[in-house]
Design brief:
Strand order of the largest sheet: 1-9-10-13
Structural class: alpha+beta
CATH class of the largest domain: Alpha Beta
Number of strands: 13
Shape: elongated
CATH superfamily of the largest domain: Aldehyde oxidase/xanthine dehydrogenase, molybdopterin binding domain
CATH topology of the largest domain: Aldehyde Oxidoreductase, domain 4
Distance between the termini: 36 Å
């Protein structure tokens, strides 16, 4: 048969946030008129869905609905610094700082409500835009609670920062604590290799990733799927070439990217092992989704046709050349005349 199938497995780990340096992020939170909330942070949204995640975090911490949360101006000249979008740090760093700021804002509101009802602040609950004490008839809407606070001269506002306790690396032996939180993942890839053309088609990816606490499971699945497709392109297609310092692949006619026809079926398994340090237990799943993908595909190619591809991308030409060398190595030596 010219087409052969194989499966490969690979695992990986990834350190969250900046490497070997202290990372930090800040946020402000305020419960406003109408029972809504404003969150101010210098977050950068690059399509990973961080604004949705922050709205969910703020809503849960304050006891309101996500649609009642506004993520404010992200200009760091007017809001707390959140630092860059990278290193899979957004949910971990900014999410935790938003949670802490919201807890402070909520505590101010709860203190006023508890004094108004003459109850222990620890007994006051907030959920779905309501403030109440379980087992009693004490209940009011969040907008009423905010109005009560303002009449008492209290603005329900909070500010917080979240940072990492990390160290640099020893220049002699490499020891140190470069990251505060780690994630782990494992993937299985199934491929079909055409031994005539050298083309590799990825049929399926099974991906299990530890993300700490999944704030938005659908978003996590999207990040896993997106990372897999990006790694698939890097592993099989994207071949950036230079000649005398100039690119010979200036456009997508020669620099090939995966399309929807190349995307395999992805089965995502979300593993929730909460981070013990951060208040939310979250970690992250951006770049980690890419880490096991390429080695799993390369191992699957080996399982299918018995050749190791040791440079990327694994183009059809490389696969055919590896198969040719394999046949030559297996051929019996020519008899001497």
């Amino acid at each position: 048969m010219p087409k052969k199938r194989g499966r490969g497995v690979a695992a990986g780990w990834y350190g969250i946030a900046r490497t070997a340096t202290v990372d930090r992020a800040g946020a402000w939170a305020e419960l406003d008129d109408g029972g809504t909330a404003k969150i101010m942070t210098g977050v950068t949204e690059i399509g990973e869905g961080i604004l949705t995640v922050l709205a969910q975090i703020a809503a849960e911490e304050l006891g309101i609905r996500p649609e009642d949360v506004t993520i404010g101006d992200n200009d760091t000249a007017r809001s707390p610094e959140a630092a860059h979008a990278g290193a899979t740090r957004q949910t971990y760093m900014i999410g935790n700082s938003v949670a802490l700021a919201c807890r402070e804002a909520r505590a101010r509101l709860v203190d006023v409500v508890a004094r108004n009802w003459a109850v222990d602040p620890a007994s006051v609950r907030t959920a779905a835009g309501e403030v109440f004490v379980e087992g009693t008839n004490y209940k009011m809407s969040m907008d009423h609670a905010v109005e009560l606070c303002k009449k008492r001269g209290v603005v329900s506002v909070g500010a917080a920062s979240f940072g990492t306790d990390t160290t640099g690396l020893d220049p002699a032996d490499g020891s140190g604590r470069p990251w505060q939180a780690y994630v782990f993942g494992c993937q299985v890839a199934e491929v079909e290799v055409d031994t005539v053309t050298g083309e590799v088609q990825v049929l399926g990816i099974w991906a299990a990733h530890d993300v700490g606490r999944a704030v938005n499971p659908k978003g996590v699945e999207g990040q896993i799927e997106g990372g897999i497709v990006q790694a698939l392109g890097q592993g099989l297609m994207e071949d950036y070439r230079l000649e005398q310092g100039r690119t010979t692949t200036p456009g997508f006619a020669k620099y090939i990217l995966p399309t929807s026809l190349d995307v395999p079926h992805v089965t995502s398994v979300i593993v929730e092992d909460p981070d013990p340090i951060g208040p939310l237990g979250v970690k992250g799943i951006g770049e980690p989704a890419m880490v096991p993908t390429i080695p799993a595909i390369m191992n699957a190619i080996y399982d299918a046709v018995g050749v190791r591809i040791t440079s990327l991308p694994a183009t059809p030409e490389k696969v055919l050349e590896a198969l040719r060398r394999k046949r030559e190595a297996a051929a019996p030596p020519m008899a001497a005349e």
